[in-house]
Amino acid sequence: MRSLVCLLALAGFTTQSLGQQQPLYATAKPNVVFILTDDQDAQLGSLDYMPYVKKHLLDKGTHYRSHYCTTSVCCPSRVTLWTGKLAHNTNVTDVNPPHGGYPKFISQGLNDNYLPVWLQEAGYNTYYTGKLFNVHTVDNYNAPFPAGFTGNDFLLDPFTYDYLNSTFQRDREPPQSYEGEYSTDILGQKAYRLLDEAVTAQKPFFLTVAPIAPHCNVFMNGTGLDANPKFSFSAPIPAKRHEHLFPDVRVPRTPSFNPEKPSGANWIKTLKRQNDTNVDYNDHFYRQRLRALQAVDELVDGLFTLLKEYDILDNTYVVYSSDNGYHVGQHRLQPGKSCGYEEDINVPLIVRGPSVAQNVSTDIVTTHTDLAPTFLDLLGIPLREDFDGDPIPFTESQIEEAHDERQEHVTVEYWGYAAGEGIYDCAYPTHTLHSLTVHVLIRTLKVDLSAYNNTYKALRIRGSEYNLYYSVWCNNEHELYDMTSDPHQLHNLLSTNGLPNATSHIILNVDLSKVVQRLDSLLLVLKSCKGQVCVRPWDALHPRGEVTTLKDALDVRYDYYYEMEQTTRVQFDECARGYFLDVEGPQFGQGTEYGVLRNGLPCIIWDLRSPAAPQQTPNRVALNPILRIDWPDELSMHLLTTPLLYRILSFQATPQYTKTVGIVLSVLFTIVMVVHMVMDEFLLHAVTFGTAVYLIATRTLKIIPREIPDVEDRKRIQNVALFGCASFIFGYLVWLVDEWVCQSLIGARHAVGLPVAFLLELHGWWHVFTAIGGYIAVAIIDLITSGNLQRDSVAQLAWPLPTVARLLGPAEGEMKRR
C-alpha cells in the first residue's frame, strides 16, 4: 500500500519529465537533498518505525547517534543550522518576536548571510519547500522575501502546523491554501516538482525538504505578529491511510517516564506526577507522532526513487535530521521540547552519499553548528572563519580519526519559557503569554517570573570514559548527571548552589568537586564563545594546547589553577526572556583576545597551572591588568633595557641632554607599557624592546674602544660583551623554539622523568641565557661608565664573567686606565 502511494505521487514526474530528459546530465559537483523534520526525537525510537529511512539511509549511510541541537526549540535551532552559529551569536533566541521568529532573523541581518546565499555564490542552485522559520507568515512573506533560493514553496503561518489546512507560498507568487489536503502529501508533490526543476537546470543543486511532522497540530488565531495570538495545541494528525497503525504502541517506559520521585531542577522538580488519564493521552500523542512520520517515510522513498530515475543518486548527498528533539512524559513533563535533557537535544542525523561510510553508526559528537560547515565541506566550498562549528567527518578513515581528535562537548542554551504542547499543559503556566507581554513584565514592570523561566546554559560532554551533562539555570540552580551510571538523568549530583551533594561520587578516579571546577570553567568559556573558541574551548583555558579533553584537564597538576579559576563561576543576574549579556553574569575573556596569554608564560608553569583570560566581574574589573600573568616577563624586559639605555645614551653628555634623555625614555616607557597592557598590543612592545637591545649593544661596543685604549684590556672586555650578546640571542632563540614545541616537551618530560626531564625545560633555559646576557650588559656598562675600571674588575664580578674573561681574554697583568 505504501509503495503504491509513492508511485501515485510520483506518476506526474516519472512519466512527463523523465521521458523527456534522458539521458540526464552529469556534473562534477555533487548535489544535496536535505530532509529536515520538525521535533523528531532520537531517544524515543521514532526511527524504528520508518522502514524507508532504514532502507535508504541507515543501511546505506552513516548514523550519527550523538548528534545534538544546541537550542531545543524550532526557530533558534534552525537559524543555528543555517548559519553555523550558536544562538547567542545570532541573537535569534525565541520562536516569536521580539527575540525570535522570521522578523528577528531579518533584523539581525542574517537574510543575506546564511547557507543558501553562500551556496548560490558558489554556483549552486538552491531549492526549498516546507517550514523555514516561525512567524514567516501570510503577512510578512515578502517583507522581504527570504534570500538565496532559486525556487521555493514555503509553508506560512498561521497555517504552518495545521496538517489539514496548510498554506504554501511559491517563489514570488501569492500564498495558496490547501484546505482539506494533507500537508506532508502536498509537500511531497512540491518536493518532487522542485527536484525536477533542479535536474532540468543542469546545475549542481541543494534541495531542502522540511515537513512539519511529527510536530503537534497547532490552530493559531493570529499570525504571531499580533500582540496576543491564541494557540491551540493537539496531537499530530496522520494521513488517513495511517490512522490505524501501531494501536498498541506506548511511550517507552524508561525510568525517567513519569517517575515516582520528582527529578530535575528549577520548575521541573516541582511537577506533579501524571495520573492515568494523562499517561493514556501521552501514549496517544506518541502514537500520533509515529503515524504522522509515516508520510515522511514515504516522502523519503519517493525522493530516492526519483534520484535513481534521474541517475544522480551516486552523485548526491542525502542528509536527514530534525531541528530539535522531543519529550513525552519524561521527568513528568507534558509533550514538548525546550529542556536540556537528552530527549530534547539529541536528534537524528543520517548522511548518505559519495564516499560516506555505509551501514555505520558512530558516537562521535556532532551538533547543528556543524551542519553549515559540513555542507560547504562536502561540496568543496571554502569554509568561513566565523563558524561556531566544524565539518563532520563522513568517510570511514575520517570517522576513525575523529574518535581520538574530535571535540567531545556540546554547548546547550535556552532563553524564555517552556510550552506544553498537549491538552494537559497546566504545568507551564506562562506558555500562553506572548513574548512581547513577558518582555514588558520583566524588563519594564520588573515582575518576577523567574519561578517559571526556562533559561539555562548547559554543557553536554561525551568521552570514551565519561558521559556527563552539566547545567546552570537562570535562578542559579545547578545540575550534574553522570550519564554512564544514570543515563536517564534522574539523580542530580549537585545541590542547588552547585556544590556536590554526593561527595563519594568519583569520575575518572577524581573527586566530584574537581570535576565540577573543570566543567564550570569550560561552560564559562562556551556560554559566550565565538568562532573556533566554540570548537576548541580548552585552548582558551590552556592556550598551549596540551589540554583538549576533560580527561586532560583533570590532571592533578591543574588543580591549583582551577581552584583559582573557580573564584568566578557561571551564574545569572536575572532570568531574562531573551539574550541580554548584561544579565548573564561574568564573561570569559571580556575585553581581551583569546590566546593572548601565551605571551611570556613559562612552559614549566603550564605543567603546574594554566592561565585564563581575566574574569570581569564588577569588583575585579580594575584588577584585570594586575591579573595578567604575562606582566612580570614583559615589565621586567623594559625595566632592564630602559635604565641601561639611559645610562649609555647619557654617558659624558651635558646636563640638559641627560635630562632630555631621561624625560623621553620615561615617556616612551610609560606609553609602551600602558598601550601593551591595556590594549594587548604586542608589536609595539616587541619593536621597542628589540630597538633598545640593539642601541645598547651597538653603543656599548662603540664606547669600549674609546674608554679602553689598551689592546689587550679592550679585547678582554669586548669578548665578554660579545659573549653577553651571544648568550642573550641564544636565549631568545630558545624562547622561540619553546613557543612551538612546549606541548610536545610536556609529554617528553613526563616520559623520561627526572633528572633528564629538567634538561627539556626550555623555558627555564631561555631565562638562564637571557639573564646572563642581561647581567653582562649591566656589569659592562657600569664598569665603562663609572670610571673605576681596573684589571681585576671583571674577576670580581659574578659567574660566569670571570670564567669568560679568563677563557677569552689575554693573560692577567697590571692594568691602568689610559
UniProtKB/TrEMBL annotation:
One Gene Ontology cellular component: membrane
InterPro entries named in the record: ACER, Alkaline_phosphatase_core_sf, Sulfatase_CS, Sulfatase_N
Cofactor: Zn(2+)
Protein name: Sulfatase N-terminal domain-containing protein
Similarity-based family: Belongs to the alkaline ceramidase family. Belongs to the sulfatase family.
Membrane topology field: Multi-pass membrane protein
Subcellular location: Membrane
Gene Ontology terms for molecular function: glycosaminoglycan binding; hydrolase activity, acting on carbon-nitrogen (but not peptide) bonds, in linear amides; metal ion binding; N-acetylglucosamine-6-sulfatase activity
Annotated Zn(2+) binding sites: 763, 767
PROSITE patterns in the record: SULFATASE_1 (PS00523)
Membrane spanning residue stretches: 663-696, 717-737, 764-784
Xref: Pfam families: Ceramidase, Sulfatase
A single BP term in Gene Ontology: ceramide metabolic process
Organism: Aspergillus luchuensis (strain CBS 106.47)
Keywords annotated in UniProt: Glycoprotein, Hydrolase, Membrane, Metal-binding, Signal, Transmembrane, Transmembrane helix, Zinc
Entry annotated with the keyword Iron: no
